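Sequence, please.
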């Protein structure tokens, strides 16, 4: 099976993003997205400058992508930021979904004038005689400690582990954690799961569209991860060098034991 995880940057590059998703949908079974938005007349329609670098009007990314992925069934979380952003997982029709969990992982933190917190969305996928869980999260951002361990982030990992411990089936944990590997927060998750970013020695998950790349050597930074339990076999993993978001897509081919 094939899974793609991507922080879509609120759909800031929606045309290129749609073209990419449409092409990848021919061979992909599951899409896992962070920073998904669907502005409404009663909610915010513009992102503050601290989020996207300019005060742009948010596109209706969710409905646009849903139309492109008409052969997929969408599952979405409640918003994790007062801007309205949420997590989304799209599963190809024909795969049965027979379980769902959603958890709030952290307390609310003020970020760029918005209220933000971390959520976890998990769905159980059933194919043939095999079941497995796909989980999606967007790690909380802490102003002034953008890529460091904090009490909030350590709690986030513990809450994720508590939720995953409820599942007997194989597990895949995807998302933008806003943290590099080898931090204490990520190491908590890596004790019982295989971080493919580490195994495959990935050096960067940021595209050339990342506005802050000048802060990092060669523009490289790792914030996105896919972790798998020991009963998931990765048959291929790569990060695609494409400018459809300020993050790069993570592509996993896998089977379950």
């Amino acid at each position: 099976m094939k899974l793609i995880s991507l922080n879509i940057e609120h759909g800031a590059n929606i045309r290129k993003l749609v073209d990419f998703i449409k092409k990848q949908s021919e061979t992909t079974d599951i899409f896992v997205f962070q920073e998904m938005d669907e502005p409404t007349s009663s909610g915010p329609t513009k992102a503050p400058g601290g989020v996207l670098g300019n005060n742009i009007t948010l596109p209706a990314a969710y409905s646009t992508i849903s139309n492109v992925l008409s052969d997929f069934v969408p599952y979405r979380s409640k918003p994790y930021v007062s801007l309205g952003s949420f997590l989304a997982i799209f599963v190809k029709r024909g795969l049965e979904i027979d379980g769902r969990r959603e958890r709030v992982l952290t307390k609310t933190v003020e970020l760029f004038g918005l209220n933000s917190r971390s959520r976890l969305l998990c769905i159980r996928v059933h194919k043939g005689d095999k079941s497995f869980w796909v989980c999606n999260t967007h790690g909380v951002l802490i102003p002034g400690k953008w890529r460091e361990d904090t009490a909030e982030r350590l709690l986030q990992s513990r809450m994720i582990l508590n939720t995953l411990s409820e599942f007997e089936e194989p597990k895949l944990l995807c998302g933008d954690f806003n943290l590099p590997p080898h931090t204490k927060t990520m190491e908590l998750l890596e004790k019982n799961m295989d971080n493919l970013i580490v195994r495959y020695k990935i050096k960067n998950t940021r595209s050339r569209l990342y506005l802050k790349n000048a802060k990092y050597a060669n523009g490289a930074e790792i914030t996105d991860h896919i972790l798998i339990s020991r009963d998931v076999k990765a048959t291929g993993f790569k990060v695609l060098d494409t400018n459809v978001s300020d993050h790069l897509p993570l592509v996993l081919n896998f089977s379950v034991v």
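The longest helix spans residues 151-164.
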